[in-house]
Specification:
Blueprint (H helix, E strand, L loop, with lengths): L2 H9 L7 E5 L2 H9 L5 E5 L4 H11 L5 E6 H6 L3 H8 L4 E7 L2 E2 L5 E2 L8 H7 L5 E4 L2 H13 L4 E6 L14 H16 L9 H4 L1
Parallel strand pairs: 1-2, 1-3, 3-4, 4-8, 7-8
Antiparallel strand pairs: 5-6
Helix pairs in contact: 1-2, 1-7
Length: 202
């Protein structure tokens, strides 16, 4: 199963108001290609995708927030699972694309290739709604359940190692941050960054 095909399904299911925090490299490229939006926070580094999405979801409880994370990223910072288990913001959906590999490091197997089960880790940390899917039908059903629910979900998606080649976004991470903040300001009708705060934010 390809991540691209999963993201295509996801893109058809989310609203224009949905805020999406994206993992590095191919996840960012594929998602921005399928669902270009200033509501996408692109190119987030390893171990911070889900924590950033959690912070946004906690701060904006009336907005749907989705984290598009990866196995290597989550394994670098698994402590976020305990935070999810404790606070469980109902507007947060975390999707972990697990290809059992560190693609950016040159096709190096991750711990999930040797038996580590991310769904079990999440449940042990207190996450009540967690699932693992391995085909598109399961993915669509699980995401629909999660998006319709009034509770937090974490879905581990077993995917192929090879990404789908798509054009890379013509914006870098810094520009994406500013676009993302301005998008929230416009849609929430509130000011987040004052002019004299922009230097410290960058």
């Amino acid at each position: 199963m390809r991540r691209y095909d999963c993201l295509k399904i996801l893109a058809s299911m989310v609203s224009e108001q949905t805020l999406v925090v994206c993992n590095l490299q191919d996840t960012t490229y594929e998602w921005q290609h399928l669902r270009p939006s200033d509501g996408n926070l692109l190119r987030q580094g390893m171990a911070i995708v889900t924590p950033v999405a959690f912070g946004i979801a906690a701060s904006l409880p009336n907005r749907r927030v989705i984290a598009l994370d990866g196995d290597g990223s989550l394994l670098l910072g698994p402590g976020i699972l305990s935070t999810l288990g404790r606070y469980a913001p109902p507007n947060l959906l975390t999707i972990i694309f697990d290809n059992e590999n560190y693609n950016s490091g040159g096709m190096i197997p991750s711990a999930t290739a040797f038996g580590t089960n991310l769904e079990h880790l999440a449940r042990a940390a207190g996450v009540q709604n967690a699932a693992t899917v391995s085909n598109l039908d399961e993915f669509e059903k699980s995401i629909k359940t999660a998006l319709d629910a009034q509770s937090m979900w974490l879905v581990v998606v077993k995917i192929d190692r090879q990404p789908v080649p798509v054009p890379r976004p013509r914006i870098d991470g810094k520009e994406s941050k500013y676009r993302f903040v301005r998008f929230i300001e416009q849609t929430e009708g509130s000011e987040i960054l004052l002019p004299d705060e922009q230097k410290s934010f960058s």
